[in-house]
Each structure stands twice: as C-alpha cells, then as structure tokens.
Specification:
Number of strands: 17
Largest sheet: 15 strands, mixed
Number of helices: 16
Structural class: alpha/beta
Strand order of the largest sheet: 1-2-3-4-5-6-7-8-9-10-11-12-13-14-17
InterPro entries: LRR_dom_sf (IPR032675)
Helix content: 25-40%
Protein name: F-box domain-containing protein
C-alpha cells in the first residue's frame, strides 16, 4: 500500500472496513504532498474529521506542506503541453470579479489551513512555502508555536514588529531544522540571540537577516547553515566561533556591501580578504572540512578566502554582475570538483553582454573541476528562451578545453503571472530543445561523458532529460581522422538520471531551491 498514490488508497479504503482500517496510516503518510489548491486544503480538512472527535484523524498527521498559489498555476506536467487556454467561466466574466472570487477562495483555504494546524498537534514537520502580504502572519505564527512536537519548520519571516510579540516563541519548540524565508521584513540583527535556546538542538539553520550579531552562545550542532554574510574584519572568527561544526555553508550578500563596480568598494573587499586570510592562519584545524559552500554573490566567497578544498561550490551571478573576475580567485581558493553557477534574471539582455564564464580558463584554478551545473533563473517570459541559449553557447566555449565529465543545465522558472500562457510556452520550448542543446554541448566538450537538462517550475512539476555519451572514434587505414569523433547520445530515464546525479554528488545542488 505504501506504493499506491493517494487517489488509489482512498478508493481502496472505500471498498470495505478492513481496508479502511489498514490503509489509513499509509494514506496519512502522503500528507507530505504539497497542498497547492484551495480544493485540496478543504478536502484534506474534511478527511481529518475534526467534527467527530471519536474518529478524528488529526493525531495521525506528522508532516504538512503548504504551497497555495494565488494565481492557479498548472501543477501537472500534461497541463504545460496543452496549447489551449482555459477560458474564464461564464460568458460575461469580468477580471475584477474573477480576482475577488479567487481572493475569497484563497482566504477560506487559509482559514482551513490554520484550523488544520491547530488540531494536528502531533506534527513533526511543517513547510509553508508561501504566505500573502495582505494577510496577517500572526495567526500562522501562533498556530505553529503551539506545535510542541515540531522538529522541522520552514516558513516566511515574521515582520520585525511582530517578532516576539505573539504568544509563545519559535525558540521554545524542539526544532532541529529552522528555515525562515525572506519577505519584505527581515532586518532583525538580534535574531541569533533570540534563538539561543535552540543552540542545543538545531542541526540546520537558514535565516535571512541582513546584519547579524554573533550571540554569546555557540550553535555547536548546526551542520547546514544559510545566513547573511557578516561584512566585518572578523568575519572568519565570527563564523567559526558561532558555528564551529558547519559542513554546508551558504552566504547571502548584504544590501550595502558588495559594490564591486566602485574602486573604493573593491579596495575594501581586498582589505577584508587580507583580514580573512590572516584569521585562517590562526584557526587552522578549527573547522571541519566544508562539503558544500555557496553564495549569492562572488564577493562573499572572495572576501571569505577559504584556504582549503571544498568539493562543491555554488556561485550566483546577477545580471551585469561586475564581480565576474573574482571567480578564478574563488576556484583557486577552494579547488572544487563540482561547480554550480547560478545566473539570475537571464531574460534581461545586455549589449554588449557581460562575460559570465571568463574565470573558467584552463589552468590551476580549474584543474580539479569535473562536474558543472548551470542554473538559469527567471520569470517565464519569451526572452528567457532567447537568452538562455546564448549562455549555453558561451559555456560551451569555456568548457571546451577543460576536463569536465558531467554537465547539468538547470532551468528554474518562475511563473509569469500576467499570462499563464507564456510560462507554458517557455516550458514547451525548453523541453523541445533539450536534446539539441545536449548534442551541441557533447560535440563541443571532448571530455564530457554525461549531460542532463533539468526543467523546474517553481511550485510546479519538474522534468529531467539526460543522456550517457558514447564516443565512436572514426578510423581509416589505422589512422585517426582529423575530425572529432562522433558522439552518440544514449537517453536515460529520470530515475536513472537522478541516480547518476546522486553518484556524482550533484543532486544536492540540483534539487536546491
């Protein structure tokens, strides 16, 4: 029964009382499926039978994921390949009236979700991927802080004015994982101090504070850390002292620090890099080996000046980022075997276009590089399809002289809410071009053995197209011909592709939001 989808399990339960009893727990285990539509949330509320305490199922729910989309984005793969648009209901439907109906439906779903949280008191994991600016967060915060068995929490950041003002506190929960997503309000520099009661339990922490103050108490059990980059001369000491056992580190940039296009700011970064290098000398052996390190800007990793090898490195490059020349220094510091480059806002076009991969020239900095992930992020608008091939063509030229064996193109697409048609059009085009892009890259990079194209619609479905590469050397009279060997692409299933990504230790970066 654990392999049956929820619809089949529900149908099985309706056949007889025996199956109604033994299929209940497997069906409740499917609560990890995101509740995306209002109808799903209301249906789940009815399934819990809260109005019948003697037969209520609320105590069986251990995991909830909430990802309500206000604009009714398609959630199935087939819907993205349906060309016809869904017309508005009724011959005289008005956009304003439709918006009001959507808002009313959404509000009823939010009320139902809060009711579910209040009654499912045995929940161990809650993930809230989206809340809405016109809806107060205080009721959500109160409902979550009442879950005394909660160990894993992901939710939007509470406004600063409400932090600590609601009943209870996140710090009073037995949390092992805490991920707070940024909203419009996240300047809470004293948050680490407020979370000090969790220092003995937290294993994973990701908080979006712009400027953080190192607390008096360390967090010795945190292994995965996502935090804003502390732009100060004691950045290395502050990180090592506060999080002494981190193995996965992701740094975000600050609003007023990484201004590399100005001469004075670049001088400041060079000066801070020297301070970091000096601190590393006195902290040799005090940090466990980092497995993965990432940053929203190259400046953070450049200033951090990591003095030891890190297997996986992720660097985000914004459109027109002036810090591209830092990449080579970062690679020389960390000597990664797997590199992810995240290119944001790929739908913007620049003339002349800034070089993205100039730091990948052959040499000591790239000698260890074996695997590469190109993540392209942006809204689902037509320019996304026009510009992303230009990035891939530029990457082909950069990787042609390197020894990279595995390459993954990752399209991370936001819904273009002004027109759902454009998002579906982008997905159809990218999927249709996957084989062409893979074949061109395979021909351009002689060392390549595997290539994948991963298409991910945020809060929607995903596709993974992947191929093993077979190179057939052409011979004539015992001599190898001058033309490059022909390449044969052997298609793999999605399951086989994820196995390859896991084997090559690329799946963590590939699945990252």
């Amino acid at each position: 029964m654990t392999f049956l989808p929820p619809a089949d399990l529900s149908a099985l339960m309706r056949t007889c009382q025996l199956f109604a009893d033994i299929a209940l727990l497997p069906l409740c285990a499917h609560s990890i499926i995101p509740l995306k539509a209002s109808e799903q949330i209301l249906s789940f509320l009815r399934f819990l039978r809260l109005d019948r305490p003697s037969s209520s199922r609320a105590s069986l729910i251990k995991d909830l994921t909430f990802s309500l989309e206000e604009y009714r984005a398609p959630v199935t793969k087939a819907s993205y390949f349906t060309v016809q648009e869904v017309e508005r209901t009724g011959p005289h439907a008005h956009p304003l009236m439709e918006e009001q109906q959507l808002r009313a439906t959404r509000n009823s779903a939010l009320e139902a979700f809060l009711l579910i949280l209040r009654h499912c008191t045995n929940i161990r994991r809650v993930r809230v991927d989206r809340w809405f600016e016109d809806v107060p967060m205080a009721p959500l915060y109160r409902a979550i802080t009442a879950l005394q068995k909660l160990e894993d929490l992901r939710m939007p950041m509470l406004p600063r004015s409400q932090w600590g003002a609601s009943e209870g506190s996140l710090a009073n929960l037995p949390l092992r994982k805490l991920v707070l997503r940024p909203g419009r309000w996240f300047e809470i520099p004293e948050m680490l101090t407020a979370l000090q009661p969790l220092a003995t339990s937290l294993v994973e922490l990701d908080i979006p504070v712009c400027q953080w103050v190192a607390p008096a108490v360390a967090f010795p059990h945190v292994r995965k850390l996502g935090i804003e980059f502390p732009a100060s001369e004691d950045v290395v000491s502050a990180l090592v002292r506060t999080f002494p056992n981190v193995t996965h580190l992701f740094l975000r940039g600050t609003r007023n620090f990484h201004l590399c296009h100005t001469h004075s700011s670049r001088q400041d970064e060079d000066r801070l890099r020297e301070h970091s290098q000096y601190q590393w000398h006195s902290l040799t052996g005090s940090w466990p080996p980092l497995v993965t390190v990432g940053a929203e800007t190259p400046c953070a990793l450049y200033t951090l000046a990591i003095p030891f090898q890190v297997p996986r490195v992720s660097v985000t490059s914004s459109a027109g980022d002036p810090a591209g020349d830092m990449l080579r220094t970062i690679l020389t510091d960390a000597h990664p075997t797997c590199l992810e480059m995240r290119v944001t806002q790929v739908h913007y076009k620049y003339e002349p276009r800034p070089p993205r991969f100039s730091g990948l020239a052959p040499g000591d900095a790239t000698a260890s590089l074996q695997r590469f992930i190109l993540t392209m992020e942006g809204d689902g608008i037509p320019d996304y399809v026009k510009v992303s091939p230009l990035l891939i063509d530029e990457l082909q030229r950069a990787l042609a002289n390197l020894s990279v064996t595995h390459v993954l193109f990752k399209y991370s697409i936001d819904h273009f809410r002004a027109s759902r048609h454009y998002t579906r059009k982008v997905v159809r085009t990218v999927c249709a071009q996957a084989h062409t892009r893979a074949a061109a890259m395979a021909q351009a990079v002689p060392s390549l053995r595997w290539i994948g194209v991963y298409v991910r619609v945020k809060a929607g479905p995903t596709w993974l197209y992947c191929w093993d590469l077979v190179r057939l050397s052409e011979r004539a009279q015992g001599f190898v011909l001058d033309p490059p060997p022909s390449v044969s692409l052997k298609e793999m299933s999605e399951h086989e592709g994820w196995d390859v990504l896991a084997e090559q230790e690329m799946d963590e970066l590939a699945r990252a939001d």
